[in-house]
TrEMBL record, chains A, B, C, D:
<protein>
    <submittedName>
        <fullName>Gfo/Idh/MocA family oxidoreductase</fullName>
    </submittedName>
</protein>
<dbReference type="InterPro" id="IPR000683">
    <property type="entry name" value="Gfo/Idh/MocA-like_OxRdtase_N"/>
</dbReference>
<feature type="domain" description="Gfo/Idh/MocA-like oxidoreductase N-terminal">
    <location>
        <begin position="4"/>
        <end position="130"/>
    </location>
</feature>
<feature type="domain" description="GFO/IDH/MocA-like oxidoreductase">
    <location>
        <begin position="139"/>
        <end position="266"/>
    </location>
</feature>
<dbReference type="Pfam" id="PF01408">
    <property type="entry name" value="GFO_IDH_MocA"/>
</dbReference>
<dbReference type="InterPro" id="IPR036291">
    <property type="entry name" value="NAD(P)-bd_dom_sf"/>
</dbReference>
<dbReference type="InterPro" id="IPR051317">
    <property type="entry name" value="Gfo/Idh/MocA_oxidoreduct"/>
</dbReference>
<dbReference type="GO" id="GO:0000166">
    <property type="term" value="F:nucleotide binding"/>
</dbReference>
<dbReference type="InterPro" id="IPR055170">
    <property type="entry name" value="GFO_IDH_MocA-like_dom"/>
</dbReference>
<dbReference type="Pfam" id="PF22725">
    <property type="entry name" value="GFO_IDH_MocA_C3"/>
</dbReference>
Amino acid sequence: MTPIRLGMVGGGSGAFIGAVHRIAARMDGHFALVAGALSSNPERAAESAAELGIRGYSDFNDMAVAEAAREDGIEAVSIVTPNHMHAAPATAFLRAGIHVICDKPLAATAEQAREIADAAKASDARFFLTHNYSALPMVREARALVAENALGMIRLVRVEYLQGWLAGQTDSKQAEWRTDPARAGAGAIGDIGTHAWQLAEYVTGQTPAFLSADLSSMVPGRQVDDDARIALRYASGAKGGIWASQVAVGQENGLSLRIFGTEAALEWRLQRPEELIVTPKDGPARILTRAQDRSRSFRTPPGHPEGYLEGFSNLYSDIASVIRGDSTHIDRVPGLQAGLSGMAFIAATQASAARDGAWIEVRT
Amino acid sequence: MTPIRLGMVGGGSGAFIGAVHRIAARMDGHFALVAGALSSNPERAAESAAELGIRGYSDFNDMAVAEAAREDGIEAVSIVTPNHMHAAPATAFLRAGIHVICDKPLAATAEQAREIADAAKASDARFFLTHNYSALPMVREARALVAENALGMIRLVRVEYLQGWLAGQTDSKQAEWRTDPARAGAGAIGDIGTHAWQLAEYVTGQTPAFLSADLSSMVPGRQVDDDARIALRYASGAKGGIWASQVAVGQENGLSLRIFGTEAALEWRLQRPEELIVTPKDGPARILTRAQDRSRSFRTPPGHPEGYLEGFSNLYSDIASVIRGDSTHIDRVPGLQAGLSGMAFIAATQASAARDGAWIEVRT
Amino acid sequence: MTPIRLGMVGGGSGAFIGAVHRIAARMDGHFALVAGALSSNPERAAESAAELGIRGYSDFNDMAVAEAAREDGIEAVSIVTPNHMHAAPATAFLRAGIHVICDKPLAATAEQAREIADAAKASDARFFLTHNYSALPMVREARALVAENALGMIRLVRVEYLQGWLAGQTDSKQAEWRTDPARAGAGAIGDIGTHAWQLAEYVTGQTPAFLSADLSSMVPGRQVDDDARIALRYASGAKGGIWASQVAVGQENGLSLRIFGTEAALEWRLQRPEELIVTPKDGPARILTRAQDRSRSFRTPPGHPEGYLEGFSNLYSDIASVIRGDSTHIDRVPGLQAGLSGMAFIAATQASAARDGAWIEVRT
Amino acid sequence: MTPIRLGMVGGGSGAFIGAVHRIAARMDGHFALVAGALSSNPERAAESAAELGIRGYSDFNDMAVAEAAREDGIEAVSIVTPNHMHAAPATAFLRAGIHVICDKPLAATAEQAREIADAAKASDARFFLTHNYSALPMVREARALVAENALGMIRLVRVEYLQGWLAGQTDSKQAEWRTDPARAGAGAIGDIGTHAWQLAEYVTGQTPAFLSADLSSMVPGRQVDDDARIALRYASGAKGGIWASQVAVGQENGLSLRIFGTEAALEWRLQRPEELIVTPKDGPARILTRAQDRSRSFRTPPGHPEGYLEGFSNLYSDIASVIRGDSTHIDRVPGLQAGLSGMAFIAATQASAARDGAWIEVRT
């Protein structure tokens, strides 16, 4: 199949989420990145585009118009800018008939969200939001279990999303716009709270009817919330809670979901993404793995953890460096010697086994 | 940077490891797959090449000659055939001056291994072997710790690689050649034992001097080993053990490494790839994560587990399907509604917090 | 040292917590149980006392008077009745000058609590409340760490106490009085919420200044709360939360504590009582064990988990049965054959090692 | 029931395993310790006996004769001396018709073992060996599962017992006799290897037919083995392995058991004694807890981990100190204030819930 031609707004050099989107788009070969307005700074935009070998634009409006006009123009665009810069490009590309893949949260303000909604309604192009966690295999299986009523009636829902990276003052680029009310719109609740909210909504299929919240700005001088504790009430009578914090020292990215029904409970934690623990009312907990995921949302067999592919990619990237003449990391790439060592291992093992476990010298 | 032009031998449709190599080569954008002899069956070779949109060959010798002659010919080739089919293509491409990236183990027999070694010596092209586990970040950090003597003198080494998928009779394609002595050369010791051997060698920097082995074929009628228990002795006086089994029922892919030195111990398990547990002689165990990996062999921040990228890729692939007109999985892709729900969540949270936790209705 | 003479109120046959108190009192040999008013039913009281070989009373008031008058009367009394029956005996024994060891919570109503407080003030005897979880070694170490400011200023506190045993209708004796408002006073918040509250108070040294609560009775017809979600605010500006539930299906007894400060965080879970995880702001998590517990609140070396003693006791109890003529469980008690088998193991191991790993027949 | 009168040989002040036996004998109330030859040093023997308030002897032979002659003499004796001192007292008490409860391993030499065996055969009294690990609830359930063929035919067995406390030179009392060939008979294989051996034998019901061993003395100058790696072959065709080490730095007491059959596998680890993981051939792993233990070898409900009792006992012991006038640890014992705080918590929670979650001041 021909790859879909993809553009990108934001994601210039140094950006975190832009690079993630590019790898993700590349992984399965369904997309080819061909154009981008990668920075609001024209020079950086041009440099970044050149680096990636794609058509560069300094303005996303120009890009939307120009790409729509080209026969080989982009069919979809990824928007990976800070929250307050989602609405304008999303609207522009939707109007140009180009599909939009937008990072979360939708926008920094309710007005911006409405603009996007209006543009989406008026356009034939589609709008996608990258809540990536609900695309993990065991989360999809969790949703399937709830949908088929394996938990009975849901009573209790708990989502936590705990990070510690904003526990102190910090001047990182990532932190800067996320703690600026104008650009982020909200603090922890927007940046990670919306992930928690969507995760619960995705798996349970229910949206809470009421909530009660306590927001804090724990770090002196911070102008957005950095800790949020939210009680939830569902129309069904179920109760729930969200805790989203960016001042939970020592937590790297602690997302977790627990749901208790009348018949069974389930638990999933991002730090052990391959395990979905399901505990029926009367019986032992079961550890479901990808072997049980019916959505088949994975590329490698169960037990080859997600990350297996990254290990392979690490090798390929080191190999590329070596081929290109940079041997800095040659020691990290197994080569002939490793292969011969393995063969010596096999030979010695077979020889020893043939002699009932006699000690055999390994000759590499 | 221009991607390196890559070819592939083996990996036709239905192959496991060929698909893995292709994703890995694609992930960081350093390679472009342009040619392949993807199957020994000419028809399947042609079909598979067409599917991938690359130059197809029915014979790898022809491919080596033809590609070497083209100006835009491949610079490197990935060999992802069964073990007994490594030596012939590796030799052909090395002779043609094309870098070889070969799956492990090196070969099915010692003779084949020698052929490759001879060809590698005679060629300017390089030879790489994809022992992927030693490319994971925490394994690289483990190696660094041993290298800087953080464990003191190594005394005890233990590697286990336990799988259960060959515990019974099976007629899967993957099982078929792996249990055929002619094509695999060895059973568990070749398929997974060599991974265990290389992992220990990579992290410790030492090759065992002697070994004593007990090989079993637990499944009636099996002609290769399916369980291997191997005692190791190092020249340094250290002792070690490898247990590689493919009849360990319930084990999906249980690779683990433990090393005990005079000063500290380390432990790593593939099923929790992000954790390297280091226990000093006098003090509590420390759980190292990618935040401590000095090789920086990763793409996402600590706590965004390896697999995070796959989640994103799942979304991109579902989005591609939708864009191409297949809406089977539209319910798995968050869109505008998810975005608006998130905005409603933020608004309700802020309203409730502003009123000291009053219960607020969520208006999506 | 002479054991302290102990009495008991409540704890007749079939009671759970009474038996626990008796074992606990016996374990270190500091107490000798000599008297009891073990049931409000005179016949059961007499039978239970006879079974235990102690002086029996049918009325705790009589017991308080009689024991205070005896030269060899009890010095302390354990009160292990339902909540609403704490105040009367506690008051009676305090007035009689006898130390009181009372199960939690203090009482079923505020009035009863006041009575106890008044009696305690007026008496020379002491009053103890058995919040047993804060007596575990790693909890004591947690408290010590907080006290020495190892966490910096505390910002976030979270305690969960989740059980599932009341998720449905149940007619167990334990459930009956716990779900009766008259006898229990409160539901989950009294039975387990007070444990959570005390645990946080004990470790942090702080009592929350304000709270906001949401109580539910999830099971139809239940007259006390069975799920409690409570937000906490501390005078220091710290925030916290308690979740106590008895309808969390599949949770056997899930008590956990997490505290995040400005400098470090700690986490403790009852299901892994031997591990206290401390994560400093900049560096890997450390798993503290009893080897690090400075309160030395244990009886066996680190790594011999709590429960080690119960294993030994299981043996002693089975041995007692055998000695008394009941050989039902003789197969669970290792005897001579096990000893000879162990000796054969040692001999064969040494013989094999002496012959460089030759296979030796084991002769038991 | 009247407690069985118990004596003890060894276990004077400072001994580890003697104290463990005393607690274990006391826990369920089936034994009363009344006599002892607690040390080979007459003075220490007398002092230790006085401390425990029991009849003291300086010689176990005298003790056997004297106790057998008394009407209220001991009915059973616990032998908790170093290995080489098991045979003489065991023989003496068996001859005197007194039941023997002996710590493992049976003896230091095969000759001593034979003496015990002969004395046991000639006596009406019984001989018990305290392999305590096989008395834990989940180990007993493991044995039951194997016995009912839940694993199918056993193929693979693996036991590890790893400690690090002898990784360096040490002059502790515990280490001293354990590293003396004359008193211990063997090193790691006797001290912990026999536990591993018995655990496998107990759970599988099979004794290996052949073994192949590699013993090391890793610490310079050590005269007994401190690391043992042993390959096992069963008559059934099953294979197994034992690894017992006392130089595994950082391991406190790492005992584990894994068994793989044709139908399912099981895994148990002492560090998580409450979990028995059973993985069927086709399906997710199940985490069995005491809720599934059919031997009912426990004193508290599932989820109240073993160790729960020790927490209670910690309180009782601190309370005893306070009652006896030593208030050093008064801050560790919850009292009236904790009780009133709990009541304030309940009251504030109910008041807040009654006002729909309004923030309520906590009045303690």
